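Table S7 (text form). Paired inputs.
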Amino acid sequence: MRATPLDLILAPRPAGRPLRASLAASTALAALSAAAPSLADQQGNQIEEITVTAQKRTENVQDVPISVSALDGSTLKELGVRSSDEIAQFMSNLQIAMPSGKGNQPIIAIRGIGLNDFNTNNAGPNGVYVDEVYMSSPSAQTFQTFDLDRVEVLKGPQGTLYGRNTTGGAINYISAKPTDDPYAMVHASYGSFNTWETDGVVSGPLTDRIKGRLAFQHDQSDGYMENLLNGKTENGANDYAARGIIDTRLSDALSLEWNLHMGRVDTRPTEYRQVGTLAAPFTPCANAAILAGQCTDLYGYKAPSGFYQGNYNRDQNLRVDDYGSSLRADYALASVTLTSITAFEYTNKYHPEDSDAEPLDLLEIDYGVKSKTFTQEFRAAGGGETYHWLGGVYYLNEDLSQNQTSRALIDLDQVYFPGIGNGNALIGTGLSTQRTAAYAAYGQTDFQVIDRLKLTLGGRYTYEHKSFDTIGLLSTETNGAFPPQTPLYNAHENLSNSDANWRAALDYKLTDQAMVYASVATGFKSGGFNGGFLDTNPANDLRQLQPIKPETVTAYEVGFKTDLFGKRLRLNAAAFYDDYSNMQVFNLVPAQAAGALPVQVLDNAPSATIEGIELSAEAKPLSHLTTSLNLGWLQTQMGHFISGLGTSDVEDFTGHRLPLAPKFTAEGLAAYTVDMPNDDLVKAETTVSYRTKQFFDVRNDPLLTQAGYWLLNARVSYMTSDGHWEFAAFGKNLTGTKYLNYAVNLSSPFGLLEEVVGPPRMGGFEITYRY
């Protein structure tokens, strides 16, 4: 692996070395709330107010009777957040796993709610919105984060105001808007593994009534995984993104905002860390031997011992192209504001996955997906001093197609003896098209019942129709060759779902700076189809083709929000209980016989319960010091749930914890600023996050588990007195913690675990110029 001087300085600590207690104690005292505002401009003694649009209007987050965590654009940049999956490190009870690595669809779990399906046709139960536009395709839900005004994470079902599939929560990304005055910024950084990052902004008035903003970003990196097969490095980056916004004031009452954006990923796909699970062909190792790295895969290959090493034989690039545009119109009448948001999103992805992470062809899969989505929302809002109302209609149309090819056991003859691959080695292709049409009407109102007591009532009706067409083709090895593929299955399915959801909340102002609230809300996620490969056994195909039912939830929450001591201390807390019915789950069923392959099953767990507590505390004891802490406790449990392919191979998951649901989470940051004699500014920041043990699958497989771990980051910056220049040095994962972001068990029949590793220790320098 090529190493830079930074790599040598920041070499990872030895495997298994614990985080020192003194370091844990000092960083815990320096923790910052994930909801903390940017500290760049804080020079007073008060904590800044945070404005959000969680309820589709601008409000102080302390006045919103729901759980909302927010990070503004300056804080995101200071924290080094470059991709949407990285925000989870700074939000309690939020996990974002990347089962196929960077550039691919995420698995988002808010308060333990997520769908761990890595196929590209099944959006999870947490909505992702960019400038109020729903990202329907899972492949479009991971993107470069640049030039943002803020990101908001809404926890709990959002069935009243938001588009669809929000039983768990919603994540809103809000772009920075065109400015009234000319503004420009350019930022560049260089770091470990020859990583270059650049981004910039130009903004300002074009005419008296037209403002514009243009932003771009480009990231390039050699990567941190060492490919021993060819001496190259993997898990790098080559990403481009750009966004243009035109804000036009046609009259005092009518304004238009046109948003045009694109993103591209063109680099080698994420390579997995492979762990063997067999002592001999079809003879499993004990778990202790597997975790000690003493076993091999089906071909007898033993992966290297290095955590960031492997032997990878594929050299095609991952290519993802995202394009989109939206037009927002706001028309202000005397007492009513009318809003229209029209949007189109296009995604085209080709992912050549080296699934086996070994030098021969044991398992390789090509994932191809195209998605075209059109959405239209109309809404009206109004109100006075003691009440506010909002109502609207929503429409979504998505056309998604998949083209997937798997090659399994291709080199079986080469490893063992000629002819053993006959009837075992195979090439399979799955072609599918999914069309979705969703309609909704919604409304919400809040009004003052008596002095300081406010009641919020909301409702939404949703109807959704999906059609799913799939064709399977298969070719098995015959006399050392692969004949043309022949049809294996051909199916056409339809599914229609509808549901009415509601929300009721009471909040009471104890004082002007303290509020308590209680709410009950329901959520709905429509049913769907298995978009993965179907089995070669027709009986299993019928099971896989069964559409899953809609999932529903009733969520209860109580909490308080308060600013104390002249807004020097902010304390927020929430306790919640969620009762789920027909929770949608994904299960990768191991192969049931020699020569068979794992089978992907989508299923409904009849019930599941989630309870937890969240606490955030932010303090500004000195004008130059801000410290805060976010804590989350989560208890998840499935009810009675038995799943499988038939009657003889079922498994009992009753009482299991949900995937990606650690029991405890903690995040924080501390920032201290120093005024220099020449009025320049020096700032030191430290961030820390902690996750306890979590599982990556519904069966709570001990081999698919990540133990508790800490991550520690730091940044020191120097800003000139005129605010034009900023120089900084940063470090990420300073303790060199080795951890997994996700893992899949392919023991039967391939004899391996497929692991997505978290990035190692890295550091760098950056420079920013603002005009």
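Next pair, protein 2 of 2.
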Amino acid sequence: MPANSNMGNDRVAHWIETGTNRFEASFIPSDNHSSYYKNESNGGTSTPPNSSISSGFAEEDQAADDLLHGCQDDKVIPSAEDIERTFWRGESQWRECLGLAEQQQTLSIPGSLGVLGLIKGVPPLPSGLRGLKAIRGYPMWKFPHLESDDMQSSMDDVSKPGTLATLDDSDVTWQPTSPPKVDERRGNEKTFRFSIPEPTRYQFIKECNPNAKVSPAPPSNGISILIQCISYYFCAKLLEMQGRKVKFTSQEPSTSHLGCSENDKILLDLRYASPDLVCWLSILLAPNSRWMMKPIPPWALVYEGVNRFDILTSPTYSSPEWGTSSSSEKAASFISELCALFGLDDQLDAAVSATIMLPFYNFRKLAATLPVPILLQRSHPKHAHYPFRQYSEQISQLMTISIGPRLIGSSLWSVFWESGIDCNVVSAWLSSIHEVIKPVLESQDTELLIKMFMLYRPQQAPLWMGVLWLGSSDWAGMVESYLTTLEEQPQFTRASQPDLVTAAWLGCKQSFLDEVGLGCYEENGTRMLSNSDLARLRFNYRYLANAEELPYGWQPFGSTLAKEIEPELHQYLDLWHAREYHGWVWILGDEKRCFHSYVIDNTQAQEMPDIKHTYGIMTKLPPIKSCPSREATSRVLAWASRDACGDQINLPNHPWLSD
């Protein structure tokens, strides 16, 4: 080996001369590369290493009080200026959002298209599910990719001695040997189950949404009955698709109940309803009514409470002979008749949103609390009306998103993710949100809290609408836990992990992997790549079908010299294009069914209201716990720093990450 060889410092030279890869800790580079780099979210640069802001805290103080303090010129710990800027950015945005939510008189969120707009990019379930207890599928992604011969040619050019200059910006004439073609790659396979272990529990609560202005369609509030009816429709439809018999209990309610006071009775005036609707509701709303089969459909409900229905019928009413369990088609027509009788058309979207959230509630062991229904007869019922048709026609897509509770969880909790936030300043970002909404959490004003979330991410508003009307009081505690520990329910597996498929289906970005990135840039005459872009590159071309998904959505910090990137990835540096969702493939035994009918354009999806980002002059930060930053940094860097073989690149044993 020549005496002047740079192999000890240049990993590419090492690879050329020895034929083996040697990976340094490229995600925590030496010198000051981690302190400044071009940020894809704002096109600017982060704090330079000579920042005039000083932390003023010793390292032992950090361990003593477990608070986040800035540290200049550290490879991992953010600077004091980065912490302050992140906090005040979040505080400004969420303070403005809180103000908008407090002024919001209704639950109609600007920019939200309703639940049918939410599922436009979701593939429908196949119609034939006979004998299946679950179904598997995987996404297809497309992006430019070199021909295999051209890839080898490009690698040969890189491996020739004397051509090292082509690996950085010192030779701008280097180009791929041929233009790329559009290639498709298979993504991570997912399983969707068609059953739950036990029905989802619910009860009635009288003080749910006392403000008449926020009721979906005053004066009648029949959303609780609609949820029960629509959950029946979902269950019956799935059973029919599986080739199973629709079997629901036939016990009918009487007009009086022992041990039930007059205040506990709910009067339902059905004198002008058809005999079939009266019979169906009598069965559906009876005490202890439930699905009589195993396995249980995902939307099955069971009532736990003291309230009972008294159903008022016409004197000439007699029970029809069609049996006890209606088909999904009959259920759909009954729902439309119910809406026509009591003017519930405007409540349908909220009720469907709540229904698709039922499997998620079941998955998280949450009980629903529905408002006591108040139904007032329309003066002139519109019997020719069929408002439920548009939902029944999209039932297969609604089912797909509904039976993926992890997908729904990832979308809900991504409301706290923000583009451009580095993983080591997550504590400052979440603390700023917590500082704004802490009074809302303490007052347990779930309605105001969810209004904020719907305003901040209008595309996800239907999911939060479902959370609001299912009414669990546990949400305030879950939000508090997540903002302080990154765990929404510590005793459960996290449901907040970002999911690429959900982001593609719903058009809501959840992590830096859903962003395009900027590709290489120049800094002081040197070609650089941000570590978030490097993670995208490695993921797209190595781990797209890997089951090990990104633990958190916030991006790695710092940058890497282009010449220090693995040689097999160099061919893509000048072909920087976004990975695009191309479609979905269902696996049905030996058969595969592909769906490419509609793809959400993430660039067009509205993800935030028009919030003014005004940063006032702030003097002092509140105490910020370091735990979220340390947790996110440790996991994100470990996930992002994998080599070509899938092994983790050697990371420094930094004391800030040791716990």
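The mean pLDDT is 78.
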